[in-house]
Amino acid sequence: MPSLKEAIESRESAERQTVQVGMGDRSYEIRIARDLLDRLGEETSDLLTAGAPAVVVTNDNLAELYGAKAIAALEPTGAERHLCVVPDGETHKTMATLGQILDFLVERKCPRQTTLYAVGGGVIGDMAGFAAAIYLRGISYVQVPTSSLAMVDASVGGKTAVDHPMGKNLIGAFHQPRRVVMDLSALDTQPVRAYRAGLAEIIKHGVIRDAELFEVLEKEIEALANRDPLLLAPIIRRNCEIKAAVVEADEREAGLRAILNFGHTLGHGVENLCFQSGMLHGEAVSIGMAGASLIACKMGLWSGQEHQRLKALLQAAKLPVAIPPLDTDALKDRMLRDKKVFGKKLRFVLPVRIGEVEIRDDVPESILLAAIEEMKD
Ligand SMILES: NC(=O)c1ccc[n+]([C@@H]2O[C@H](COP(=O)([O-])OP(=O)(O)OC[C@H]3O[C@@H](n4cnc5c(N)ncnc54)[C@H](O)[C@@H]3O)[C@@H](O)[C@H]2O)c1
Ligand SMILES: [Zn+2]
């Protein structure tokens, strides 16, 4: 990989970037540039089957802005186009909404050659991707992420899912997209809080795999939080490279891919208990990373100084690092119900130095409980 610092300094960054995800005959390309949504037809016409429809799935918050734009941009392909609009938000990442998408496809008699376009944040990407995985036993789809989190994480790697009342992402499938088209200009309209939540997964990638990225973030976090266009392209590209490398090595999470769950053991527990109150996924992951860091510190895996460094970066990104008032037993119960629990043991991804983590299922309960109490608001 070329140095990230050099890429930022050379200002090559504003230009179009591509990242390959190598998965044999299911390999695909991630394309990153401003205004790509306007060119969605040209960018993906080679994937379409003549005579088969293109279905854009989006939510009611983005339909007017990006859904309509995607439909217009697909005109040159000559495909019959449909816009499927579902309700916005994590609370609608459900079997019921998935059913709406499937009904939409069935009612229009969409054939197996149909291509789905997931236009939106991680919720739309996960849900439309899952619909594509199971409709007629699988149709092809394109990820068109519009949120920071979806660009750096959710749109790459082929994990698709909906939530269940008992936990997040409990029902899903692995199904790789045929292409990922990232229009950086879409980030201009993302509300600041949601945009910042996406920075949590960027920081995660730095901690698990890339000390250089972490150092760049420490220096540039304010500019990144302000969406400096010269930083966005190289940083998003680097995040895609990291995610692609992990997914290429371990698509189905038999081992290495689990490191991407750094911050998600405690994070999913907090998110499950708090998402009705509007907590965002990235915010819960931020709290989860601060928690995993504190646990690692208490277990002597990494130093208090490294813990402070990570916490300072999260706080500089204006992300939460404290657990909101909630019942510790309920939180433990939620974590134990998470699908990443093996047997009855909680599995944590713990940092050992910036850029390297370990997967551990031997965190003593006393340390976990002490960390939770210490982190409460
Ligand atoms: N599949 C994976 O590998 C993976 C990885 C990480 C996260 N996820 C999932 O992603 C979801 C979180 O994604 P998210 O943070 O994008 O949430 P989201 O999809 O709910 O988007 C956040 C909010 O921003 C709005 N929005 C998105 N783009 C916008 C834009 N350009 N302009 C204006 N508003 C915009 C959305 O409508 C929504 O209200 C979670 O469900 C999480 O489980 C999946
Ligand atoms: Zn996540």
Structural class: alpha/beta
Strand line-up of the largest beta sheet: 1-2-9-6-5-3-4
Report the major sheet. Answer: 7 strands, mixed
C-alpha termini separation: 41 Å
Which stretches of 5+ consecutive residues score pLDDT under 50?
none
Query: Which percent range describes the beta-strand content?
Result: 15-25%
Report the C-alpha radius of gyration, rounded. 20 Å
Q: Quick one: overall form?
A: globular
Mean pLDDT: 95
What multimeric state do the chains show? single chain
Give helix % range.
Answer: 40-55%
The tally of helices reads 14
Number of strands: 11
Write the layout of secondary structure elements.
Elements: H1 4-10, E1 17-21, E2 28-33, H2 40-44, E3 54-59, H3 63-73, E4 81-86, H4 95-107, E5 115-120, H5 122-134, E6 140-145, H6 148-154, E7 159-164, E8 167-174, E9 179-183, H7 192-209, H8 211-225, H9 229-249, H10 264-274, H11 281-298, H12 304-316, H13 328-337, E10 348-353, E11 356-360, H14 365-375
Parallel strand pairs: 2-9, 3-4, 3-5, 5-6, 6-9
Antiparallel strand pairs: 1-2, 7-8, 10-11
Helix pairs in contact: 4-5, 6-7, 7-8, 7-11, 8-9, 10-11, 10-13, 11-12, 11-14
Account of the protein in words:
With 377 residues, this protein is α/β, with parallel strands linked by helices. 46% of the residues lie in helices and 17% in strands. It contains 14 helices and 11 strands. The strands form 3 sheets. The chain has a 7-stranded mixed sheet with strand order 1-2-9-6-5-3-4, with helices on both faces. A two-stranded antiparallel ribbon has the order 7-8. A two-stranded antiparallel sheet has the order 10-11. β1 (17-21) and β2 form a beta hairpin. α4 crosses α5, α8 packs antiparallel against α9 (229-249) and α11 (281-298) packs antiparallel against α12 (304-316). The longest helix has 21 residues, at 229-249. The protein is globular. The mean pLDDT is 95. The chain binds nicotinamide-adenine-dinucleotide and zinc ion.
